């Protein structure tokens, strides 16, 4: 898949999840707030949220910067931006807006923002160094960037890719570990893009999932839906059944219905 085709595939995926995104479990809301906290925003700041989704970081950021500040959310998924614009209108948020935009080609002048946030979006981009370079370019001197990535879960969901491959789909979990797989690699990624004073903080949150059906509905409400979308239609029911059974087995082995997600947030200065 070409980089451009990959971008459009990801944009389509998150447009399709817009109706249910973060509605099954308040997952992104929690980590969005943590990312905003890591960015240490101040009243009056002008902030960019890259790969903003439905605003998990936009809303807490807008609260942090107050009426004298402003938050702009950008995402390549038109469906997500349309839903976020509606949320902004409904919430009467006067210090925020949302636009469709490519993270690898930000349409803002250099030094335009005091801070840039990117929560769980960098992993989907074909050219991560280019996106980080763009984030640094639009920051003012000594501006702050806070970039969040996933850092593992309990139960471990790596089985989704394996099951997908068994049923004729794709396994995005295969291949070498990504550079953000540990603190040192994540820091190096930002440092190579020109950021200084880079530090990484870890966050963890627990979410109650009533049963395997709740877990499955949650998977279809965010990026993991890609396994379903790329599964041969005639194999989908079997894949779903196998995935739910596997999750139930892991949850029973753990002796609880709590799902634990971990995240890393890298913070650097331009």
Task: Give the secondary structure arrangement, pairings included.
Layout: H1 3-16, H2 27-39, E1 46-50, H3 58-65, E2 70-75, H4 78-90, E3 96-100, E4 113-119, H5 128-138, E5 139-154, H6 159-166, H7 183-192, E6 196-208, H8 212-219, H9 225-229, H10 236-254, E7 258-269
Parallel strand pairs: 1-2, 1-4, 2-3, 4-5
Antiparallel strand pairs: 5-7, 6-7
Helix pairs in contact: 1-4, 6-10, 8-10
In this structure, how is the largest beta sheet organized?
Answer: 7 strands, mixed
* Shape summary: globular
Please mark out the parts with pLDDT under 50 across 5 or more consecutive residues, or reply none.
none
SS class: alpha/beta
Question: What CATH architecture do you see?
Answer: 3-Layer(aba) Sandwich
* CATH class term: Alpha Beta
Mean pLDDT: 90
Elements, N to C (H/E): HHEHEHEEHEHHEHHHE
CATH superfamily: Vaccinia Virus protein VP39
What portion of residues is helical?
A: 40-55%
Q: Using only CA atoms, what is the Rg?
A: 18 Å
CATH topology: Rossmann fold
Overall domain count:
1
Give me the number of helical elements.
10
Q: Note the gap between the termini.
A: 32 Å
Strand percent estimate: 15-25%
Question: What does it look like?
Answer:
Helices cover 40% and strands 24% of the residues. Strands 3-2-1-4-5-7-6 form a 7-stranded mixed sheet. Strand 4, helix 5 and strand 5 form a beta-alpha-beta unit. It has one domain: Rossmann fold, CATH 3.40.50.150. The longest helix is centred in the last third of the chain and has 19 residues. The chain is built from 10 helices and 7 strands.
């Amino acid at each position: 898949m070409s980089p451009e085709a990959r971008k459009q595939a990801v944009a389509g995926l998150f447009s399709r999840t817009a109706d249910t995104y973060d509605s099954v479990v308040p997952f992104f809301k929690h980590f969005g707030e943590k990312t905003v906290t890591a960015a240490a925003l101040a009243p009056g700041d002008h902030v960019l949220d890259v790969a903003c989704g439905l605003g998990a970081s936009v809303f807490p950021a807008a609260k942090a910067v107050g009426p004298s500040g402003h938050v702009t959310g950008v995402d390549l998924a038109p469906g997500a931006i349309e839903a976020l614009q509606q949320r902004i209108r409904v919430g009467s948020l006067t210090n925020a807006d949302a636009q469709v935009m490519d993270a690898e080609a930000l349409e803002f002048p250099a030094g335009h923002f005091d801070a840039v946030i990117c929560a769980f979006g960098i992993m989907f981009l074909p050219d991560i160094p280019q996106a980080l370079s763009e984030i640094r370019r639009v920051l003012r001197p000594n501006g702050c960037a806070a970039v969040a990535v996933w850092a593992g879960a309990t139960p471990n969901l790596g089985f989704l890719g394996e099951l997908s491959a068994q049923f004729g789909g794709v396994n995005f979990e295969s291949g070498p570990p990504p550079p953000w797989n540990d603190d040192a690699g994540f820091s190096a990624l930002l440092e190579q893009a020109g950021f200084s004073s880079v530090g990484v903080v870890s966050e963890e949150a627990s979410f109650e999932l009533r049963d395997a059906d709740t877990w499955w509905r949650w998977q279809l409400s965010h990026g993991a839906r890609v396994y379903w979308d790329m599964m041969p239609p005639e194999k989908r029911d079997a894949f779903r059944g196998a995935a739910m059974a596997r999750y139930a087995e892991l949850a029973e082995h753990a002796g609880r219905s709590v799902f634990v997600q971990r995240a890393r947030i890298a913070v650097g200065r331009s």
